Amino acid sequence: MEKVTRDWQNQYMVPLFCPPDFIPVKGQGCHVWDQEGREYIDISGGIAVNSLGHCNPELVKALTEQANKIWHVSNLHTSEPLLRLAKRITDATFADVAFFCNSGAEANEAALKLARRYALNHYGPEKDEIISFVKSFHGRTLFTVSVGGQDKYSKGFGPRPAEITHLPFNDIKALEEHISEKTCAVIMEPIQGESGIIPADREFMKKARELCDKYHALLVFDEVQTGNGRTGYLYAYMAYGVKPDIMTTAKGLAGGLPIGAMITRRTVGESFTPGVHGTTFGGNPLVCAVADKALSIINTKETLYGVKERSGLFFEGLNAIKERTGVFQLIRGMGLLIGCVLADRFAGHSGDFVRLGYKNGLFTLVAGPNVVRIAPSLNIPKEDIEEALKRFEKTAEEFRDQFGKED
Ligand SMILES: Cc1ncc(COP(=O)(O)O)c(C=O)c1O
Q1: Stretch 38-57: mean pLDDT, rounded?
Q2: Contact assessment for residue 138 and residue 222, using Cβ atoms and an 8 Å cutoff
Q3: Does residue 50 surpass a pLDDT of 60?
Q4: Would the pLDDT of 106 be above 90?
Q5: Disulfide-capable partner of 371 in 69, 78, 120, 339 (CB 3.0 to 4.6 Å)?
Q6: 139 lines ligand 1 (CB under 6 A)
């Protein structure tokens, strides 16, 4: 086979992405190797996706067993893996019924369409307003970028869908003043991920629940990133003790294969009757078999408690690095979704930190321009945490020397 080189990226790919100048070719656990055999510790988890590490043997087994049975039947037929996964996720949550698709954006698209259709069916066409929050992120389809609270993602594509309101996050007064009988849904991330790992206040979330009940609006939690054990709870709403009417998830659900899920109560789900919504690949048996196995491993005391333990190690290590280097002003987040907020003098440079990390054999992420994000696999071994923190500190020192000169 012809050798693939990094310049193929520029030659054959639409220039949406700017990957570094190496190509990862192999992954095992939290380690990745590139074409030259260089090793990296991955605490980015493929953007909070590889929940059980690269090539987890139990997931590989589930995948290969299903690969030898049947791959795809479309939604013209049902399948055993699909039904097993639907049972597992609804048994474990507030929900009665599930819809599967291929990504977080699609799950949110389905949730938003369902909320509007439910309101139409039960209250009439005037009830169509969706309330969302400034800086939220819900995906890249036109509807979901429009609902997301960041103009940079939604401007420049022509008219955006109407009747979407963005309110300040964690502002109870603004929500109280704005919500009305016209509101059909309030959508929020329990922890805003892409914009900097900003948790919802418990009081705010409780109030949103109360106000949705009062005004007959559906409360939608986007747990695309916070779901599937990421916070040390199976879903973050469980940590808050506030139940949504609809929840979406994706990312870590199948440990690295593309999947999205929208789950809800039966009475709400009933507004999706045949033909109202759909997908060709969603609920694919191959992906569902892996997701079912992943969720069965994640939803155990061992994994969820393990996330909390590992979180403690990261917080301790990162706070010490913050003190020693002065690069960060705050370490925040929950479980293994952690944001390291850059000190003001480094504002805007989170991408440079990630790039320096590559040089030191470390994969991290940004969460907006001012936050370095960490979202490793939930089962990262303790010795890998130690080594990752060493590489993180070395990166922070180099970063301070290169980007902190103006101080
Ligand atoms: C909270 C949240 N919602 C939705 C999405 C979109 O998911 P996807 O990229 O799988 O469409 C993301 C992705 O980062 C996310 O973090």
Answers
A1: 98
A2: yes
A3: yes
A4: yes
A5: 339
A6: yes
Please tell me the predicted confidence (pLDDT) of residue 404: 76
Domain 58-298 has CATH 3.40.640.10: yes
- Report the pLDDT averaged over residues 200-224: 98
Expressed in angstroms and rounded, the spacing between residue 365 Cα and the centre of ligand 1 is: 14
Q: Which residue has the tokens 């479980």?
A: 335
pTM higher than 0.90: yes
- Atom of ligand 1 at shortest range from CA of 260: 10
Angle in degrees, CA 231, 233, 235, rounded to 5 = 90
CB of residue 105 inside a 6 A radius of ligand 1: yes
Q: Are 391 and 44 in contact (CB under 8 A)?
A: no
Q: Where in the chain are the domains?
A: 7-56+301-403, 58-298
Residue with tokens 């003001």: 344
Would you give the distance in Å from CA 106 to the centre of its chain?
A: 13
Residue with tokens 């963005």: 166
3-state helix/strand/coil string of 260-317: EEEEECHHHHCCCCCCCCCCCCCCCHHHHHHHHHHHHHHCCHHHHHHHHHHHHHHHHH
Non-local (6+) Cβ contacts of 167 within 8 A are: 131, 132, 133, 134, 174, 175, 178
Best mutation site among 145, 146, 225 for ligand 1, i.e. most ligand atoms within 8 A of its Cβ?
A: 225
Q: Are 153 and 188 in contact (CB under 8 A)?
A: no
Determine the angle formed by the axes of helices 382-403 and 350-359, rounding to 10 degrees.
Answer: 120
| pLDDT score of 405 | 56
Residues 71, 6: Cα–Cα separation, whole Å: 31
Q: What is the DSSP string of 342-359?
A: EPGGGTT-HHHHHHHHHH
CA 289 to chain centre: 20
The pLDDT tens digits of the residues spanning 282-298 come to: 999 999 999 999 999 99
Distance 315 CA to ligand 1 centre (A): 24
Domain spanning 7-56+301-403, CATH architecture: Alpha-Beta Complex (3.90)
